[in-house]
Prior knowledge:
Blueprint: H1 2-10, H2 33-45, H3 51-58, H4 63-77, H5 81-88, H6 91-100, H7 104-116, H8 123-132, H9 135-149, H10 153-160, H11 163-173, H12 186-198, H13 208-217, H14 220-230, H15 238-245, H16 248-289, H17 297-322, H18 330-342
Helix pairs in contact: 1-18, 2-3, 2-4, 6-17, 7-8, 7-9, 8-16, 10-11, 11-13, 12-14, 15-16, 16-17, 16-18
Amino acid sequence: MAMVSEILGQLSLNIGAREPTFPTVVPAKDFDPDKDAARIETAIKTKGVDEQTIIDVLTKRTYSQRTEIAFAYEKRAKKDMVSALKGALSGSLETVILGLMKSTTQYDASLIRGSIKGAGTDEETLIEVLCSRSNNELVEIKKVYMELFKKDLEKDVAGDTSGNFAKLLLALVQTKRAEPSSIVDYEKIDEDARALYEAGVKIKGTDVPTWISIMSERSVPHLQKVFERYKNYSPYDMQESIVKEVKGDLQKSFLVLVKCFENKQLYFASKLNEAMKVVTVLFRFFSLKCGYFEGLSFFWNRCKKYILRLKSAILLQEHRIQSGQKFSYHSVASAAVVKLKACNL
Ligand SMILES: [Ca+2]
């Protein structure tokens, strides 16, 4: 498993004596897709597969550069690079490298598909993706979901969830959120804050549909002001009110939504941190108790799940940096990689 830590370590999350300076994922200089494609072709053809070269090339390029390499590869090798990599690699290395070849939208769409396909539903993943992505990202995810799986995301979500939880997710998937406006409507802010209070903390039980419509239809800057104003009505802030009013998956979903409205970077930083803690604890436990993990498929699968989360966070970081958004969790990500290395994962 040393390979996985190496890949993560090479995802330009450089760990040095100094804190990494923004940005940590930048396009490679003197980039030559043909040369890279040739290196990958040779690496795949090498007996036993030259995994190191594949890691060296693909983890040190941005997503758009990787796409160019794939195009150059297809031109010279007359076959699809992703299928070739799939055939050449296996295990966690295959998972991570194939994940890197997907755009964040494709990755999100396959996460959702994976969480509802087959028997049962992985609610945690479903909540994480649907409640933390922006309206524009959800619009793209729906489109890509249809392209990749020939299925309607709305129908799939409706078929796999129920009750108020289903209503909330569907409201998000319907992408009715207002665009941020340059005019601050103080009257509307006050009205929404009061409505949230009167539908929850003020009454016995909870008027969930009112919460859903406000949280799925208002713009994010508007909601940030609504939650501030909310404190004038309620003795509890919005997150505390959610914990008091609703339970289970519905509670988890509202909490992810509100955390992301308030500070999305912080939300992802804490998810990354949480994932790392679990991986560290699991590995410490097993190195102590057993000295090996391979046969313990249950725990190994759990670890893999957290590695995927970590990868999702890294892909997201890359996406944000490329789209020019400020990102604030470099130190968390670096600490995560240090931990992974310490675990020899
Ligand atoms: Ca109540």
